[in-house]
From TrEMBL:
Any Pfam family: adh_short
Source organism phylogeny: Eukaryota, Metazoa, Ecdysozoa, Arthropoda, Hexapoda
Compositionally biased spans, kind Low complexity: 1-15
Keyword match Thylakoid: no
InterPro entries: NAD(P)-bd_dom_sf, SDR_fam
Keywords attached to this entry: Oxidoreductase
Family under the similarity heading: Belongs to the short-chain dehydrogenases/reductases (SDR) family.
The organism of origin for this protein: Anopheles dirus
Keyword Oxidoreductase: yes
Annotated region described as Disordered, given as residue ranges: 1-21
GO molecular function: oxidoreductase activity, acting on the CH-OH group of donors, NAD or NADP as acceptor
Entry protein name: Dehydrogenase
Length: 285
């Protein structure tokens, strides 16, 4: 009797290789068991991607602390989660304000002992051109949120992980714009502004963090996930108002990005997904 439905013979002359006796299936649900009861911080959980990530982590049994300035949206997500293994907390925090970040992570340490995972998802995009007058505040807002806020949260998370000798994981939700500045349609207003520069910085920062984690001997992993256009995210929402063509472009679902996060955090201990780019089929950016 042969295994896995094979014919039990490799003597056929049709050139078809025999079916392997065994197969390997990556069971993410099983691998997520190592994170059950662990604490994850998710920034920007009031948004489409952050909300989807937070939901999947809670379903997997994690204690998720959502850092957000919009408690109402996080609360709406929390009450929608029935019969799940984990729980979701909203921690009001403006990640561009250092004292807010310190207070948030301090609260998490007092309540749950510390942080095991950080998902840096919070981000902003503005409509101003780099050469536009009176754009100073918009420029600072983009850099303070997308870069400085990410670094502040990472600093506090690594501090917590290192103090408790935790082999944690840091996920930076990046963008395809962190690898390529897309070409504006001739005659139309460019939509890039400071956003690609901030995401290029995230690409570099992720590698710098990786090197620092190795130097510190923490055993922590860091992953940059760069999605293309995503339904309901800040890029799609902002761009569609200025450029009709965006409405017809193929898009990922927020859940697709959440699945990518689960993939990255369930690799074997000796494997680190450092950079993951995911695009919707047919994307032409």
């Amino acid at each position: 009797m042969s295994a896995n439905g094979s014919n039990g013979s490799n003597d056929s002359n049709d050139g078809t290789p025999a079916t392997p006796a065994t197969s390997v299936r990556i069971d993410i649900a099983d691998r997520m068991k190592r994170w059950h009861g662990k604490v994850a911080v998710v920034t920007g959980a009031s948004g489409a991607i952050g909300g989807a990530v937070a939901k999947e982590l809670v379903k997997a049994g994690m204690i998720v602390c959502a850092l957000s300035r919009r408690r109402d949206k996080v609360e709406k997500l929390r009450v929608s989660l029935f019969d799940v293994a984990g729980n979701l907390n909203c921690v009001e925090c403006d990640i561009t304000v250092e004292e807010d970040v310190k207070h948030a992570f301090g609260w998490i340490e007092n309540a749950y002992g510390g942080v095991d995972m950080l998902v840096n998802n919070a981000g902003v995009i503005t409509k101003c051109l780099l050469t536009e007058k009176n754009n100073t505040r918009d420029l600072y807002t983009t850099m303070e949120t997308n870069i400085i806020g990410l670094c502040l949260c990472t600093r506090e998370a690594v501090k917590s992980m290192k103090a408790r000798d935790v082999k944690g994981h840091i996920i930076n939700i990046n963008s395809i714009f962190g690898h390529k500045v897309h070409q504006a349609v001739p005659g139309t207003r460019p939509l890039n502004g400071m956003y690609p520069a901030s995401k290029y910085a995230v690409t570099a920062i992720t590698e710098c963090i990786r090197q620092e984690l190795v130097y510190l001997g923490t055993g922590c992993k860091v992953t940059s996930i760069s999605p293309g256009l995503v339904e309901g995210d800040i890029v799609s929402t902002s761009s569609s108002k200025e450029n009709d063509i965006v409405n017809y472009m193929p898009k990922l679902k927020p859940e697709d990005v959440a699945e990518a996060v689960l993939y990255a955090i369930t690799t074997p201990e000796n494997v680190q997904i450092h950079e993951l780019v995911i695009k919707p089929m047919g994307e032409f950016l």
